[in-house]
Structures are given as C-alpha cells and as structure tokens.
Amino acid sequence: MLFLRPATQTLLRQATAKGATTAYVRNRSIVVQVSSLLSGNYSARTPTANTTCRGFSDASSSPWVDFPMAPPDPIIGLTEAFLNDDFSDKVNVGVGAYRCDLGKPFVLPVVREAESDLVAEDLDHEYSGIAGCPLFVNLALKFAYGDDSVPLHEKRVAGVQTLSGTGGLRVFGEMLHKFGHKHIYVPNPTWGNHIPIFTNAGLEVRKYSYYENETCSLDFSNLIDDMKAMPEGSCILLHACAHNPTGMDPTLEQWKEISKVAMEKKLLPFFDCAYQGFASGDARKDAAAIRMFVEDGHKIALVQSFSKNFGLYGQRVGALSVVGDTPEEAQRVLSQLKVCIRPSYSNPPRHGARIVSKILSSEEKTNEFVDQCMGMAKRIDEMRIKLKQTLEDLGSSRSWDHVTKQIGMFAYSGMSKDEVVALREKHHIYCTLDGRISMAGVTSNNVEYIARAIHDVTGGK
Ligand code: KET
C-alpha cells in the first residue's frame, strides 16, 4: 500500500482532469494507473529500460502517446464544426461575434478610418511596456469609469492592457490566488469559459443564483440570499451589462441592492465588461453599474473587452483595472499585475490598442463609434422581434417573449440539449448546448429558416 500525501493526491487529481492516465512513482520506480493509485488499489508494472520521465513510453513510441483527445471547446469548437459542414444554408449562431445583415463579419467604419490614420503615421513595432500602452489604458478606463470618475482623478486606479477580456480575467484570477483567495463566485449560469479560466488560475469556482429558468427572468431574491451567505471578503464576479448567456441584467434598483449587500459582506466586486454598448445601445450608459459601485465606495476590479463593441475580436484588446484606496496602493497593485504578466506573455500587442486609442482620443470619432455600436445593437433587436414574431406566426404554443425581453448579443432560448442537438444535426444550425443563440448571427435572410427549424425541433410546443 502506498501512502499519498493530500498534496500529492490533489496533484494527481489535477493531472487526471488534464487527461493523465499513468503516473511514475519515483521512490518505487514503478508506473501505475492514476485511478488505481487514488483508490489505493494499484497494480504496478515496472518501467521498461526505456521508460522516461516524459511520457513513460518506450523509446520507440512518441512522447505524446499518453495524450488523450480533448473535447472541442463548447463555443469556439462550434465554429470549427460549422466550417466543416458543407450544407449551403448552414447557420453559425454559436460564438458571440457580430455579423452584418448579409451574414458577414463587420468592421466598424470608424475602425477602418483609425486604421488608415495609423498607416499614414508610419509607426514602429517596438515592444509595449508590460502594462501595455499608457494612452490606451487611460482612455479605456475613462470609457468605463467615466470622465468625472473620482478615483481616476485621484490616480488611485491601477490599470493594465490585457489580452482582451479573457487575458484580463486570467491575470486577475492569478492575482487573487497569489494573494490568498481560495475561491471566486460566478453567476449560475455564466460565460462557460469563466470556469476553466479561474480553475486554471488556482481558484475554486462557486456559483450564486442568477436566473430562473421557469420564468426566464433574474432570480433576484436567491441572488441576494446567496450573496448574504458568502464568506466575508469573497470575490464575486458580476457581468457589467448584457449578461452572457441569459441576456438578463439587474435593474438599477437591483444593482443598488447588490452593491449594498456586497458592502455589508465586504465582498470584492469584480466586473466583467465584455458588451459595453450592446445592452442599451449606448456604450456610455452601459457602464452604469460599474460607476454606481465605484461611487458607493467599492474597491472594484474590472475587466474590459473591446472585442465586441469595437469589433476587434482577433486583435485581443482589453484592460484590467483595480481601484485602490490611495495612489500609492494603486502603484503597488500595478507592480504586482506586471509581475504576473511578464512571465506569462511579457507584454500585449499594439495594433488593436492603437485603433481604440485613435477613436477614444477624438470626440468626433468617439461619437461615430457610439453611433455605429448603436447600429449593431439595433440590428440585433430587430432580429429578436423577427425571430419571436416568426415563431408565433408558425403557431408555436411556447412563449417566446423572453427573446425580446433579453438584451445584448444572446437569446437564452430555453431549448433543451436534445433540441439543440437536433437543430444542429437536422438543420445545420449551430448554437451552444445550453440553448444560447447568438442573435448577432441572425440576419433578415436566415431568420425564417432558424425560426422554422426551432419550431420543428421544439415540436411547436
Ligand atoms: N467575458 C464574457 C462575459 C464573454 O462573453 C466573453 C466572450 C469574454 C469575456 C471574452 O472575450 P474576449 O474576446 O477575450 O475579450 N464571449 C464570446 C466569445 C468566446 O467565447 O470567446 C462568446 O461567449 O461567444
């Protein structure tokens, strides 16, 4: 019998979660199945002369022989499956990426303008600083916190440019873990990637109530009760606006209550702001919850993504910021963010941040941006109305009111996993297994096809 220390057991469980099947027990010089090792019921086999630490494999086989096939990503994997589908009327409503009404990727005209300005400037391609471009960071923070934000004026906000929203979430998760947080609370449901991001950062991911499936609405009283039950000092992740996947945001009064309870419980509010502009259509208004929390005195952390609102998906433009008590405290936090970033990816890319800076440093271009972002949000709203109307016209007895009640990029349709699979297999329509439809991929051309397919797989009920 082999005695395994708890730390070793944890390591083995983590390795198993990542797909490891065998382990090399050094002090015994044996190779065993991890599962049998954990259950205490292992059968040992002696390594061959050629066993190595790499893959426990013979020299004749590949070092990657023990690598199992990982499942496709639940969101990005859909795009891969969609691209491999040769059906002519296939539809991708999986990933939250905006399409124009012709179903094509959309580059905002103001982004094109900024890009040609940049080309004319003949810029170099030197490294950024670890924290990215200071001009971009300042403008990004103003965009979220507001021009008249007190902590910004008092220089007590630490900000860095990040590899878009995902990169910022990971960096902050690592920071939390490094400075003693053991867990983080995320809404149930939440963006699927939140869970592996924070798990990989070393945190236990806990869920708080957010949505009531029966009524297709915010489960506010349970949300508040769950917050009251959180251990003091816990970090709570909040979607700043246009909650993904439900499309249901708290009202301003409800945000006020959330802020109050967070203060009472000394929680650390951590905002994920990936859709600023897609909730109300006005990017400036969509920062209301963030600004309210800051005014209420919370020392929030905030991650911003410029993927959706500026349509800069592949440029990886984002920012992470932390509100401190004093400028000196903010400097210390900033130094730690840099310590986390440097060994991870050294420094962020420049081009996308330059585009956003060009736009946000000009009042005229900012106004153009707000209008163009509003245009995207409006087209999505029109598609919500058309989808609901068509389903009703087809005689569906199910209520589709939630499709127009929800906001942002997604319709949380309420379709079951089986219905989603049927939608994919029978009708070549790709949405996530939780029934989330990216309304940004619905167009005047395909809305009827989608409605008919949904009607078919839901049996009109
Ligand atoms: N937060 C939320 C809530 C979110 O929906 C996304 C992306 C991100 C952060 C990260 O985006 P980034 O491009 O790293 O700034 N969501 C869409 C794309 C994806 O899954 O990567 C989606 O849900 O389809």
Plain-language structure description:
The chain has 461 residues and is of the alpha/beta class. The chain has 3 domains: 1-68, no CATH class; 74-107 and 375-457, Aspartate Aminotransferase, domain 1 (Alpha-Beta Complex), CATH 3.90.1150; 129-361, Type I PLP-dependent aspartate aminotransferase-like (Major domain) (Aspartate Aminotransferase, domain 2), CATH 3.40.640.10. Helices cover 42% and strands 14% of the residues. The strands form 5 sheets. Strands 4-12-11-10-9-5-6 form a 7-stranded mixed sheet, sandwiched between helices. A two-stranded antiparallel ribbon has the order 1-2. The longest helix has 31 residues, at 363-393. The chain is globular, with a radius of gyration of 24 Å. The N and C termini lie far apart (58 Å). Bound molecules: ligand KET. The site of ligand KET has 16 residues, from helix 7. Ligand KET is lined by residues 75, 95-96, 164-166, 191, 193, 239, 244, 272, 274, 305, 307, 313, 318.
